[in-house]
Backbone:
């Protein structure tokens, strides 16, 4: 069993080293289980600075529920910090759901066939907002399925993450050439 104080100090040392290696416009995404993530947030605030905390991302996944005397854990937390006030962020999109966009009663089509709705703001004239053809912006709750025991993707690494999760982070934080 790992001593909590030893783990925290070990994590602090690694994060200091990672911060030194990180490019000035770089970001770091940290995932730990629910037993240690709150300690990690405090260390990340110390090492990177509270002002460089960008998001807490909830990685939500579905699985069969089990009999338990507590709520079943169906999410993990990922902390995103930048090294400076300049970082790379590529907007991520996902398809609209059946109840959003074109099927939403607020949306109409213009003469060119593009879907829009009217946006009203207090004290301002209403204006049109068009649906993005690439889908809706991804928020801070990511529904990405975990890797089940029989998945072809599984390689028996104890903390393996799904490729889709890693791809989203890389696509968000990498400079596109």
Residues:
């Amino acid at each position: 069993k790992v001593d909590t104080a030893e783990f925290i100090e070990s994590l602090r040392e690694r994060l200091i080293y990672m911060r030194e290696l990180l490019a000035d416009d770089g970001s770091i995404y940290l995932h730990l289980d629910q037993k240690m993530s709150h300690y990690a947030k405090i260390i990340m605030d110390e090492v990177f600075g509270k002002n460089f905390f960008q998001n807490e991302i909830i990685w939500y996944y579905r699985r069969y529920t089990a009999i338990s005397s507590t709520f079943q854990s169906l999410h993990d937390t990922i902390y995103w910090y930048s090294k400076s006030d300049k970082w790379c962020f590529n907007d991520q999109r996902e398809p609209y759901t059946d109840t959003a966009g074109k099927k939403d009663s607020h949306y109409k089509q213009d003469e060119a066939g593009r879907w829009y709705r009217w946006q009203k703001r207090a004290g301002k004239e209403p204006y049109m907002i068009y649906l993005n053809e690439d889908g809706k912006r991804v928020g801070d709750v990511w529904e990405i399925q975990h890797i089940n025991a029989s998945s072809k993707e599984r390689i028996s690494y104890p903390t393996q993450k799904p490729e889709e999760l890693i791809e989203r982070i890389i696509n968000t934080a990498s400079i596109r050439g």
Observations:
- DSSP finds three helices and nine strands in the chain.
- The first helix runs from residue 4 to 21.
- The chain has a mean pLDDT of 89.
